Amino acid sequence: PGVNRIDEWFYLVSTGKGKNGGAFPLLRSLDLVEWEEVGTVFPPGGHPVWSANTDFWAPEIHQVANGKVHVYFAARDPTGALHVGVAVADSPLGPYHDPLSAPLVSDPHWAIDASYFLDGETRKQYVLWKIDGNAHRVPSVLKMRELDSSGTHFAEGSVEHQLLSSDKPWEHGVVEGPWLLKRGSHYYLFYSVGCFAAADYGVAVARSTALTGPYTKCSAPILCSGKGWAGPGHCVVISSPSGGDVMVYHAHQSSRMHHIDPGGRHVLVDRVHWHDDGWPRVGTMGTPTPGEQPPIHMAVGFRGDPLRVGESYIFRLIDSELLLQYDGTFRGDHHGDVLFIVREGRCPGGTISLEAAGRPGEFLRHAFGQLVCHVADGSALFHNDATWQVVPGMQTGSEAYNIDGVVAVSMRSINFPQNYVTCAGSRGIIQHADVADLRRLTLLASHVTC
Questions:
Q1: d(CA 165, CA 290)
Q2: Is the Cβ–Cβ distance between 15 and 58 less than 8 Å?
């Protein structure tokens, strides 16, 4: 969904056709909760002359620098190619028209997923888009180019800038749905990875001190499938009515982990928390919040970091006495080889690494699917294998264990984000969530005061 605040209202535009047959349903809300339908961007029969009146995708609504309201969108032409277009109106409610009678952005590998950014310092405005490379068996990339004062043409002398390409294994060859914002000294580029119709879809972020990059990617997606919801993605990040930032995105209902239920996509809203390290956290420990959002002053605890950096913990499987050992096994007997110190992740962006308290310099990692403790060798492979994201405990009802210095968590591999710490027999391993017993994906982390 494309969502933005214009005057006192939040406006939402979405993919597809409205009930009246027009393109891009248009809704509005005062609180991001209760919505009313107010028409479509293009009325029935009023689609752009260059389009084939089919496949109206990924619109975004923005009030641009000159005060006009623009909807940037993708549509398919009669040859089957997808292009980015723009619709313009004096009011968010329309009427909208296509001032170009032609696409704004085209590419041999198709252009989709347009977004708009206004630089508050320079007052220059830009359009971002995705080259749909994954549809043509080539890498997908995100690009940006400066617009002129009208916001409907490229600025004279401007050039395209490539911001990101799909080069991480957890991106599954896809980067799409860009959303750019400025916070402090950094530009943050939120984007989606994977296939929108699959449970491995998620939201990632990259940042840079320069608008055109280079951008440093967070080491893993910041929003992934969780309890009740799968495949979250294609987000916007805006200020909420009650303060703070929120992410609006779509996701599928899911009756079991990493499973897509029938019924299409739903629009969800989750809080964005900006951590001291400068990277954002989203939702409930990186997954869609399953219940009602708390007031901003109460959005703490599980929506922050449950394991404190520099503190020591013992990890055991929930509903058992099996403890995680330095040798990567889970056993009931131990001789002090079970205490881990939480360190900042060896890769950036809301992650942790676990150092063996009794073996300084050794960190828990996965190697060939099994858990081991190794001395850090400084390699990129080691950094990836020894970095984890902490998410809510996967077992239903596990939050009841979160008392007296104990927290129920699951630990996700950053280079294989759908794989979690578990065990087979006594051997500690990482395993894909959809084939694992959820009890064995849930650990109780007990804080130990040394």
A1: 32
A2: yes
